[in-house]
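Page header: ASSEMBLY MODEL / two components / 758 residues total.
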Amino acid sequence: MRVLLLRFGELYLKGNNRNVFESVLISNIKKALVGHDFKFEKTFGRYVISSYAEKEESVLIEKLCKVFGLYSLSPAFEVEAGVDTISSVVGEVDVSGKSFKVFVKRADKTFPISSMDFAKDLGEMLLNSYNDSFVDLYNPQVEIHVDIRMNKKAYVFTQSIKCQGGLPLGVSGKGLLLLSGGIDSPVAGYLVGKRGMEFECLHFHSYPYTSELARDKVLTLAKKMSAYVGKLKVHVVSFTKVQEAIHANCSPEFMITIMRRIMMRVAERLCQQNSLGAIITGESLGQVASQTMQSMTATGVVVKRTPIFRPCIAMDKEEIIKVANEIDTYQTSVLPYEDCCTVFLPKNPVIRPTIERCEREERKLDVDALVEECLNTEEIVEIG
Amino acid sequence: MIYLDNAATTKMFEKGAEIYKEYACHSFFNPSANYSQAIAIAKELDSARGVLFNKLGASKGQMIFTSGATESNNLAIMGGRRNGKWEYVFSMGEHPSVYNAGKELERQGFIVHFVGLQPNGQIDYRQLESVVNEKTRLISVMHVSNETGAINDLTLVDKIRKQHCPKALLHIDGVQAFCKLDFSVDDFSADFYTISAHKFHGPKGVGALYVRNINDIKPIVFGGGQEGGYRSGTENVGGIMAMKYAVESIDICKNFEKVCKLKEIMTAILSQNNVISIINDGNFSPYILSVSFAGVNGETLMRKLQDNGVVVGMGSACSAKKSGNRILESMGKVKEEIKSHIRISFNEFLSENEVENAGKIILQTYQELWEKVK
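Prediction written out in full:
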């Protein structure tokens, strides 16, 4: 019988919490495979997916590869653990013209042949069947694994597919991702997701300065992220009035800094309203004027009771792009629609703002009223 | 809503839509089939061919039905190309379906010249004269610019051709001119002329290419040999018949006069604000008005206008965010003018009142926006 063997990684480290982590992971696996018929079995530190339609196997693998907390998986044959049954399955592996190695693991020590001897026997059988194949113990082209378990079942597989790793989504709480439409913020979302954090998204639009297409682009990004993090709630908020007010009253070089300080305040308020425990941004140190250490100090200081997570902080743009390509958000992110951060862009934005100067600029505004006005424009879009 | 983006597309004639339905649901036969109902349809297509032919004022040649202007332009350029050391000439003002076909020829190793524009939007005739030579295989120049409404002097282009490269073929992209300007393709001896139905109240997805001498062209798609083998694929019968209806219904001279008046009204209103700059110095189609609104972003203005009930277009400006606007840049426009550009385009069914109201809304919306961003 064709099955999928699933392995998890860091759950081993979690001591007494392991059961909690596992139950979340199992629930996430089942959610990822909703709509497919299958059986799920938890055994000996692995999970086995069986009784699925064979033609759906590649789709199941694709979906499982996006479940955080899974380390790797192998499509395998499950047979009753016996010398003949195992030999028969191993004999089906095509090693013609290739080097190979047989690995046998025997959790069930009552199995009549030792692991080493059985590996030798199976190797010999393959050599007899395929004259042009040969054994290479160090760098084989085909690795044949035989796993004999305590439940009197054996698994034969030749492939181990790397999954996302990380922690099961949901074990690290829930945050709010500032989603701009650029390359970095979806990557930031993916990275915290990989560490087990669920999140909702906050998008600021600046219609009519930004287009409806820019908003659609952000929703497309959310949809692409939802392949990894499941259903997503996107809070869409108008930032137009804030930007007009800053433009009319503040020094132009402080446009971006003040904007981001108000964004952070709106984000924290939404966190409080929706019981979200962290603000997540795609900031990367020194990437643009608003992402210098001083700028982040000036923008972060307005957030009082919520941590700000910046998972891309030490990543180069190239590294961020690599992840964006892997999670399929890059091509959407680079669509040329302006986001609100490029509207009213000053020629020389301040690179090293001080908190005092920001506060002086903000005295020219009714910041509380602007935050309130933003929140009043909130529209919620459910994705996935 | 007052719709002023008629250079992008026009509303289809309702009667045309009924005709389309008739050919989709009742007279739906494949014109390539052999039974009498189908043969009758083939004859009707020929009659539509004749109607387009007459409207173009052509004394000889053929009309090939296509899926629209992009295909017609590609058929003329890629189907008109010949191997060997031939050269190809395009204006910088061409629609992407011509310009990018030129770029493709360049990529394939042909020598391609892109001729710049004058500040009035017309092709730079002197530069054209300097690049054409006996090796020139094809010159492609649009009749009316979709971006600015500038009308190229095709008689002059033809004169340059006859003087320097009499064997060269002349392709005219007539998308913004056909059924809008009164002319004959014989006036400038066009070898190819591109037509698109949805620009004159016909349906989308149908057009035609006029070809003076069929031996000058080779097919670019292959199949069942429809359209004399020059454009395989079952004809869009309903679309063609609805296009025929549009061509027959349009009174070019009467509409021209009416639209001239509409453009005058709009120009007069916008001219009240002296920082609004209208590209209008030269020979322009009355159907298109190209305007720069100093100090604001054209795209933002377009969206504010949409909220205020007036729909205008951006030409190709919005798709050119990364690379600027090729056409306006070639005319020597500076970045600020390009960014603040919008395109207002009319149709003959707009009333003077509507255009006056739209003009006032545009003026007021611009002033409000300018106050916010100044």
